[in-house]
Amino acid sequence: MTAKELMKQCEAEEKELKFREFSSETALAIGMALIEEAKKRDNKICIDIAIAGRRLFHYSSDGNAVSNDIMIERKKKTAMHTGHSSLWAHYMLEDCGMNIKEKWALEPSEYAQVGGAFPIRLENCQTVIGTITCSGFNHEQDHSIIIDVCRKLKRENLSLIHISEPTRHAQ
Do the Cβ atoms of 46 and 134 come closer than 8 Å? Predict the structure, then answer.
């Protein structure tokens, strides 16, 4: 797939995984599910879930380096700046042949050009209100574990995490 096609895929995931509401209980359910999924994949993980600058959930597996926590902060800042997943930003920059400093005048030491931060949106609000962020796998897997877990929780217990059904428009 091209970078542009991968951007569209990220946009579709963002549209699919909007929340009706998001509470500390939602963050806890997602965070615990991410920990369990990382264990199943036999990998260490660092997780951060935040809304409006307020950290609702944070976890770092035993043996993780502090660099995972630093990367979490950089990924979150990228997602909040762009209003899209940090993986979307990665593909956007790849597509236009620029780096994060050239495109958005952002310092690479403070903003990440890799996947792993997913924007939290409410279904009736276009603004990103927070992020679900992972570090510990390669950057595409950091992104995909978030998507996989949110989709799994949606299938298993929609009432718990309140993920919206995608809107279908008549042709």
Answer: yes
